[in-house]
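ESCALATION

Customer reports they have been waiting on this structure for their group meeting. Please prioritize. Original submission:
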Amino acid sequence: MRPGLRVLLRIRVAEGQEERFEELWRAHAETVRRFTDNHGQQLLRTRGERGSYTVLTDWTDEPSFRAFERSPEQQAYLRELWAIRSGGEMQLLDLVHTLSPATPAEA
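Update from on-call: job pushed to the front of the queue and completed.
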């Protein structure tokens, strides 16, 4: 099934906790990818803004994402994350259209 929901999560990490956060995210990402309704994830760091990250994850739909959010694995991760974060926000985005890059013949 193709993803229909993208979750955008902005996370601000307490000063000095950046490396710990990246390690924590990488370890948890291995767990997230085993959820069948997860269609990929990315961790991005904001240039020039220490401790500022964006996580993008794609899900089949909102009910599957919400089920993941309530999972014991996610709850354990959040307990560790909350200890080192200084703020954040989440947005649920509906996939409207996807356009693949042009092939060399189209360029």
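Sent to customer with the following note: The longest strand covers residues 85-94.
Escalation resolved.
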